[in-house]
Structure formats: structure tokens, C-alpha cells
Specification:
Blueprint (H helix, E strand, L loop, with lengths): L1 H21 L11 H13 L8 H6 L3 H7 L28 E4 L2 E4 L2 E4 H5 L21 E4 L18 E3 L2 E3 L2 E3 L2 E4 L5 E3 L4 E9 L4 E8 L3 E11 L6 E2 L4 E5 L9 E8 L2 E3 L5 E2 L4 E2 L3 E4 L5 H8 L2 E3 L6 H8 L3 H8 L12 E3 L2
Antiparallel strand pairs: 1-2, 2-3, 4-19, 5-8, 6-7, 8-15, 9-14, 10-11, 10-13, 11-12, 12-14, 12-15, 15-16, 17-18, 20-21
Protein name: Murein DD-endopeptidase MepM and murein hydrolase activator NlpD, contain LysM domain
Pfam family, one: LysM
Keywords: Hydrolase, Signal
């Protein structure tokens, strides 16, 4: 009996040891001295250098890869986009209705992307930046000028649009726009929805002028303005007031010089508008190679710069043409005195 009691006691001691070996051990909780902690934090803060956040530098260093990831479900910024959308029957625009600023970069809903990546080509200093050769343009492109269903509208550039000088050849040079009569200070409106790309001054030509890039793939130019009311990068809607008309630059009187351009090349606005009836002709316009026939012809023309001692006869012999053809091409006579440095068309 005594041995049985000893055996039970031995087993109980053994089981207690096993339980202690497998028991969870909790760490001791040590309460820190608050005074010591506060003094340490104070010492650490003395070493912190407070600096303002340089937003401009940060935005410039954003990578296109990061922007592509952000917009990967909407637009692939890494791929150079066409100047116009692939399907002209569908209005394609930026993934936002708020475009805040354009300089070298564009801020879209607080996310910055480079203008070149998103718009394929962007320059706020030059009018024609596309290097488009019309001789290689063989296909036709259907431009949807507006779509009221989706809220993309159109507007005449002036409240009334009397034509004073049409698109075409005049004064021995080509006139690339349509001149519309106005009084200085008359309001000038954006023709379609778009973004202001150029706001500049041309002393010997357009005077104060604005170029707007539109959602439909075209650009419009407004020249001889008295005052510009919009900034580069500003998003405008059709009919928004963008300027006041005037007679700045090379102008003989107050009027609006209005141009329509496709990929940098101007074409006749009267193919799109009926200015006498103050309306647009159609919702769509077909861009064809024939539209730029005059530009192709002009670029194939050959010119000669007159040098000292040259005359019409020597220049004609040099290019294998007749003197009469030279006078006809240049609107001069055989008695015209040639000036050194003067450009003569020879073909």
C-alpha cells in the first residue's frame, strides 16, 4: 500500500514537470520612466531638419513608367499616340474633364504626365510641329467635327462672320486662312472643344494669336487679336470666349484671321463652314490628299536666290527654262531689276 502511494506521488511530480516544460512563457512587462522618454524624444527632434516640399522638382522627376501603371486601364502612355484618334467616328479625349496646366508637362487630376508622351507632339512655341508630308498622305480620314450626344459641340468663331478675304492665293503669296470682318474688341470664340496649345505674338504676321488643339483632331488658329484671354494648357469648350478681335501684326484693318489645320497643314475653312449663313456644313468632314494639293505643289516648286552679276537670261539658261516662263512664274517683266538675295521661282 505504501509503495502504491509513493508511485502515485512520483507520477504526479513527473506530470507537473512536463506541464511546466510545455507551458507558454510570457515576457515581463517593464514600465518605462516617462521623464526619461520625453527627454530622449526632445534630443531626437533637435536633429530633424525641417525643409519645405519642392513640388516642382518632384513633378519633373516622375517617371513615365509610373504614369503608365497609373493609367494602364485607360491609356498606355508609353506608346506614342496618333495626333488624331484611330476611329474618327469616336470622340477620344484625356481621361479627365479637368486639365489644369500645360507647360512642358500636363497636370491631369493631380497626376502629371509629359505632354509629349500623352499628346504625341506638343510645343507651345511653334504652330506647325508635326513634320507631316502631304505627298505621303494617300488615305482619306473621316473627321467627326462634333457630337452633341456626347456633349462635344461647335461654335462659329464670331457672332457674325462676313468674309473679307478667303483662303487662297493673293498678293503673290498664299493666304492660309479666311479673314472675317469685326470691330476691335469684338468677342472671339473657340470653334470646338480643345486645349490651348500656343499663345503668342508675331509682329510681322499674325500679331497676337492663339492656336487651340481640338478633340476632333483639328487645330484652329485665331490671328490679329487685340487681347488674349486664355493661357497655354487651358481646356476650353466650343463657344468659350478666348480673345477679343483687333488689327495687330501685319494687318490692314481690324479682322479675324481664322485657320483650320490638320496635322499642322492649313486648309480652306469654307469647306467646313458656310460663313454667309453662319453655320457649319456637316457633322463630319473627309480629309483627302487633294485637300493639300496646293501645299504639295508649293513644296515641289524650285527657287533660285539671285547672286551678284546675274540676270534673267543667265538664270534661265542655268535651269533650262525660258525668260518668259520666269517672268510669268514670278509676276514680273523683262524690265524688272533683280535684287541680290531675291528668291525667284524657276519651276
Amino acid at each position: 500500500m505504501r509503495y502504491s502511494i509513493l508511485f502515485v506521488v512520483f507520477c504526479l511530480n513527473l506530470s507537473i514537470g512536463v506541464l511546466n516544460a510545455n507551458a507558454q512563457i510570457f515576457p515581463k512587462i517593464i514600465k518605462k520612466n516617462n521623464n526619461t522618454q520625453s527627454s530622449t524624444v526632445g534630443q531626437e527632434r533637435k536633429n530633424i531638419e525641417l525643409r519645405s516640399f519642392d513640388q516642382e522638382s518632384y513633378l519633373k522627376t516622375l517617371s513615365s513608367v509610373t504614369d503608365s501603371i497609373i493609367f494602364e486601364n485607360n491609356v498606355h502612355l508609353g506608346r506614342v499616340r496618333s495626333i488624331i484618334s484611330e476611329d474618327q467616328n469616336i470622340m477620344i479625349w484625356a481621361p479627365t474633364n479637368q486639365l489644369i496646366k500645360v507647360s512642358e508637362q500636363i497636370q491631369i487630376d493631380s497626376i502629371w504626365v509629359t505632354a509629349y508622351e500623352y499628346y504625341s507632339a506638343w510645343d507651345s512655341n511653334k504652330i506647325d510641329i508635326y513634320n507631316f508630308d502631304p505627298k505621303t498622305f494617300k488615305d482619306s480620314v473621316n473627321i467627326q467635327l462634333y457630337d452633341e450626344f456626347f456633349g462635344y459641340n461647335w461654335k462659329m468663331p464670331l457672332e457674325t462672320t462676313p468674309v473679307t478675304s478667303p483662303y487662297g492665293y493673293r498678293w503673290r503669296r498664299w493666304h492660309y486662312g479666311t479673314d472675317l470682318d469685326l470691330n476691335t474688341g469684338d468677342p472671339v470664340f473657340s470653334g470646338f472643344d480643345g486645349i490651348v496649345r500656343v499663345k503668342s505674338y508675331d509682329r510681322y504676321g499674325y500679331g497676337y494669336y492663339i492656336v487651340v488643339r481640338h478633340k476632333n483632331g483639328l487645330e484652329t488658329l485665331y490671328g490679329h487679336l487685340s487681347k488674349q484671354l486664355v493661357d497655354i494648357g487651358q481646356e476650353v469648350k466650343a463657344g468659350d470666349l478666348i480673345a477679343y478681335g483687333g488689327s495687330t501684326g501685319k494687318s490692314t484693318g481690324s479682322h479675324l484671321h481664322y485657320e483650320l489645320r490638320y496635322r499642322g497643314l492649313a486648309f480652306d475653312p469654307q469647306k467646313v463652314y458656310d460663313f454667309s449663313d453662319n453655320k457649319i456644313l456637316s457633322q463630319n468632314y473627309l480629309i483627302t490628299p487633294a485637300l493639300f494639293g496646293n501645299i504639295v505643289q508649293a513644296r515641289t516648286n524650285a527657287y533660285h536666290k539671285v547672286k551678284k552679276g546675274e540676270n534673267l537670261g543667265s538664270i534661265a539658261r542655268k535651269y533650262g527654262v525660258s525668260v518668259s516662263s520666269l517672268t510669268k512664274l514670278n509676276g514680273i517683266s523683262t524690265r524688272t531689276i533683280l535684287k541680290i538675295g531675291q528668291n525667284l521661282r524657276v519651276k
